[in-house]
Amino acid sequence: MKPILILALLAFGSPWCPADDLSGPNHSTIRRTAWGTLFYDPVAMGSHQYESKVDEVRIKSSAGEVKVLGSDVNGYRLSFGNDLLTIKTNFSDLEIRWQEKSWTLRSQNARHTLISNAPQDTVVFERNANTFTIKGAKGFVTVNTNPGVLSIKSSAGSATVTNYLGSRSFSGVALDQIPYLGRGVFISFHGVGILLDMNQLFPTPEVAEWNEWKPVIGQPFEANAPR
Fold it and tell me: In the predicted model, is pLDDT for residue 4 greater than 70?
């Protein structure tokens, strides 16, 4: 599996980038934000027109027009006809709302709480020195790092990764069976994707190479999801 690039917190960046490694394979980043990215898949979109201004992006295709308005300071507003998705920040809180769906991230010191109703879950991320814990409705995972040894305990079982003199060994439950080890939360909005990047907000370099672009909760981005 390919290693994941652990991102530092990013301020509002350039208005558009080509396909890159910020939002996932084959995805073009529309906006880089302090909490993740807004992006789309230009190939899956088919024939389309992309227009970008300072605080506005329009993507027109045969399906219609998606508008992305806003900034990190003022929040974002995504629209497709009468359908609306909003992203707002309030001090250390981030709130995403789309129709009856909502995702809220509350951050305080080394603790982050993700509250979602799509799917229904409350996930708590905590770090203390060389140990981090993630727990929610699907179970828990605790990762502890000592020289040469990575110890993982979870509701799915335990695993150990040992490095010794250039060799590495694995034992215990398969790492892809452990809950909440992933990149973040992906939201698909009429061909545009929102990535709430937990590896950016809550870096977990100990397990980054096994996370790839798996969602922490919910589903991966679906460019052709029903609209």
Answer: no
